[in-house]
Design goal:
mainly beta, Hypothetical Protein Aq_1857, Chain: A, three-stranded mixed beta sheet, about 40% strand, ATAP_core_dom
């Protein structure tokens, strides 16, 4: 009996995409205004923490060829194609918690999170 091994190719999927709340879009626009060579923000994931994955935000000066682009009110969010299986459908928000202001991620694929909120599992 022959066994066929299937490979996972992110390009084969129809993604729901990511959304930006008005607060997140406003903050990204503010960052872009402060750095004229910045064209947006990239949201990716990396293996880290006790739950498995963590979000990674970087400024973007030159998009990568495999980046998917999500825009809202002039704000640009770039997502590497290989990150989509972990964050597809995520809403990106920007909130104030006490003295802190930070991006928050409402990820429907996250099945668990660590106690400190730094990582998630799918």
């Amino acid at each position: 009996m022959e066994s066929q091994s299937e490979t996972f190719n992110p390009q084969d999927f129809a993604w729901r995409g990511l959304t930006l709340t008005p607060a997140a879009a406003a903050h990204i626009r503010e960052l872009m205004a402060r750095q004229p060579d910045m064209v947006g923000v990239r949201l990716g994931v990396k293996q880290t923490g006790c739950a498995g994955f963590g979000y990674v935000l970087d400024t973007v000066r030159q998009p990568q060829p495999d980046d998917l682009l999500y825009e809202a009110d002039g704000a640009r969010l770039y997502v590497p194609l290989q990150a989509m299986p972990f964050i597809d459908g995520t809403e990106v928000d920007y909130v104030r918690e006490g003295l802190n202001q930070l991006f928050k991620f409402n990820n429907p694929k996250a099945r668990n999170a660590c106690g400190c909120g730094e990582s998630f599992g799918v």
